[in-house]
Structures are given as C-alpha cells and as structure tokens.
Amino acid sequence: MKSMKHTLVAMLGLVLMMALPAAAQSSPEEVADAFNKAIESADEAAVERLLAPDVMILEGGHAQKSRADYMAGHMKSDMAFIPHMTRTVLDRQVSADGDLAWVVTFSTMKGSFKGKDYDFSSRELLVMKKTDGTWQITLVHWTDK
Prior knowledge:
Largest sheet: 6 strands, mixed
Number of helices: 5
Domain DUF4440: 30-137
Signal peptide: 1-24
Organism: Kordiimonas lipolytica
Number of strands: 6
CATH architecture: Roll
Distance between the termini: 59 Å
Structural class: alpha+beta
Radius of gyration: 17 Å
CATH topology: Nuclear Transport Factor 2, Chain: A
Keywords: Signal
Strand content: over 45%
Protein name: YybH family protein
C-alpha cells in the first residue's frame, strides 16, 4: 500500500509539472535553453507553450508568421535535424526592459545528417514578452554562416 501511495504522489507531481507552462522559467535565458531543448528532444507540447501564438519565426529565406504555421511546417524539419548536431554556445547576451527581453546566442553547430557533414556558425535572436508573469517567445531569428 505504501509503494502505491508513493507511486500516486510521484504521478501527481509529474502531472502538475507538465501542467505548468514551460515558459514559466524564471529568466529569459532559461526560456531560451528550454526552447532549444524542446526542439532537440522533439517536445512539441513544450514548443507550443514557449512560443506566443503570434510568434514570427525567421530562418534563412523562410518566415512563419504564427506558432501554428511553424508547428505545422518547418518545426518538423528542425526537430529532425537538430538532434544530429552538437551545439556549442560561444557567447550569449541577455537583456530585458520591463516585460520585454531578448536573448542573442552565438554558437557553432557540428554534425552529420542524411549523409552530409555540417560545421557552421549560428546566431539566434529570441525576443520575449512577459504576460501574467510568464515569458513567451514572440520572435525567433536564426541565421547561419
């Protein structure tokens, strides 16, 4: 009986953790890390919680003008590609002004995907807005060179 009680308590704790918004991270930097981890681990629910409904995502020559656009389209490609890369953060700058924040991350990406080797520099700009105490990403701009 005691182990069943512990199991129920653990399951309740897990359910409560999953119910909390992933964007409720305490800092914009934590939101940036959670977003990258969600893509790497193909956690679509976390991506949905972290992105504002009206997020704009700019990548190369592509733009998704909402969370729904990204999730229905290019997100799948990102989730297929990113787990094959090793990302090394070289520099990160975090700034905030009231309920707005931005995180600029410079990194390198190395790996192999579908028989092709990759080794490139990446720049990520995330702009976030805090609403009701929760940070959500409102702009993603990825560039590589």
